Amino acid sequence: MRPVFGSIGAGEWHVQKYGGRRRRTWRKLPIGVDEQTKEIVAVQVTKNQVHDSQMLPTLLSQIPVRVCQVSGDGAYDTKPCYASMIQRGAKATVPPRRNARPLIRRDCSEGLHLRDATVRQSQQQGRYAWRVASGCTRLSLAENAVSRVKSIFGSRLKARRFDNQQTEGWTKCMVLNQMGRLGMPASERMY
Known about the structure:
CATH class of the domain at 3-96 and 135-173: Alpha Beta
Number of strands: 7
Order of helices and strands: EHEEEEHEHEHHHH
Radius of gyration: 18 Å
Structural class: alpha+beta
Strand order of the largest sheet: 1-3-4
Largest sheet: 3 strands, antiparallel
Helix content: 40-55%
CATH superfamily of the domain at 3-96 and 135-173: Ribonuclease H-like superfamily/Ribonuclease H
CATH topology of the domain at 3-96 and 135-173: Nucleotidyltransferase, domain 5
Shape: globular
Strand content: 5-15%
């Protein structure tokens, strides 16, 4: 299994930058998607102050089977994320930040050595070539799943209490999985 992780998107950025109603807040929905089945295998509704990288260990703990590879965006380029990926025995395909530099230390953990190798490969091959070669482009699977959740159920939660919002987010993802089991569209590339 190769889960990819993403979270629901651009609306919260707009509200934070330009302002919104006083009492309005948003929730994030970090998810993990199985690459082969396109099912959502891990989900957690969080408040807007929680960074995506803080949720990766929780999301990985929800997956009972072996995880081969974890793909994510630059938000997961942190020490705790690499540590949790190594703990699960997964290959990390997280793009380093644009200004990333290899950390030069002798007593680095295994996760930092892995990150440094990723930074060096990205600098040598070029950012786009590294993304294609490493399989990091699979992140689009999570973005697609988030898009399906938003298009089918809307981008708003109906529940008011946070614990009920968590249940609502989880339920929407499980219903989406059931819909996918009933029939996913078959897409073919046209040349």
